[in-house]
């Protein structure tokens, strides 16, 4: 543990030296995440996408409750993002999962807050062409984990393979409603403190995008956090469709299905 701190860039090291921390391995990311009492250090391979994420986080300061960038450094291999730590509990915490109506109202507030942000000068936009191009790269390079998919995605009643799914996605593009989208709006990325939204984290896919992307991933996250697919507890009688009631909209099941299927290729 000590060696990890000693190998950090000098500026980052000076900001965290002597502080106690734990390692957080939640999620599918290959990044190392060090959790300090008042800040978080994310270490991952250098990429242009990470640069864009930092630009977005700085642009979002004052607009949304997101972590503040304290320092951002690079070396020959990695990028090091030190940011403030969000307070509160993940929205998949048992307290909120046991109160589905309250939870869905809070999630709806978070979504509406995202969508209320003026996107006219947003530094990042993700088009469906962008996402499908990345999905094609992943399919062609055999990077898809079919065992991690929804049970109905592949097989007799689904798609033959990821290539067939990709072709369907390319031929069935939905009309898009552009807003500021979180890009991975699932329950572990939404924090609540004393009954109020306290922060949104994991902003690597935050950009101008379709509002139904966030709705679809939020719905799936509610469903699977409630049915025991993710987590160890089943919440009997939990109705994820309360989200639509809280949002005051009718669900567009075709778009919801499209974005859940698109996410199967990532």
Protein described:
This protein is α+β, with helices and mostly antiparallel strands and 266 residues long. It contains ten helices and ten strands. A five-stranded antiparallel beta sheet has the order 1-2-3-5-4, sandwiched between helices. Helix 6 (128-140) runs antiparallel to helix 7 (162-171). The model has no long low-confidence stretch (mean pLDDT 95).
Helix/strand layout:
Layout: H1 2-6, H2 10-16, E1 21-23, E2 32-36, E3 39-45, H3 48-60, E4 69-74, E5 78-84, E6 89-90, H4 94-97, H5 100-115, H6 128-140, H7 162-171, E7 178-181, E8 190-193, E9 196-200, E10 207-210, H8 211-226, H9 242-247, H10 253-263
Antiparallel strand pairs: 1-2, 2-3, 3-5, 4-5, 6-8, 7-10, 8-9
Helix pairs in contact: 6-7, 8-10
Q: Which tags fit this structure?
A:
266 residues; alpha+beta; five-stranded antiparallel beta sheet; three-stranded antiparallel beta sheet; 10 strands; 38% helix; globular
Oligomer classification: single chain
- State the major sheet: 5 strands, antiparallel
Structural class: alpha+beta
Q: How many angstroms does the end-to-end distance come to?
A: 31 Å
String of helices and strands: HHEEEHEEEHHHHEEEEHHH
DSSP, total strands: 10
How many separate helices? Answer: 10
Residue share in helices? Answer: 25-40%
The radius of gyration computed from the alpha-carbon positions, rounded to a whole number of angstroms, is 19 Å
Shape label: globular
Report low-confidence residues grouped into runs of 5 or more: none
Order of strands across the main sheet: 1-2-3-5-4
Strand content: 15-25%
Mean pLDDT: 95
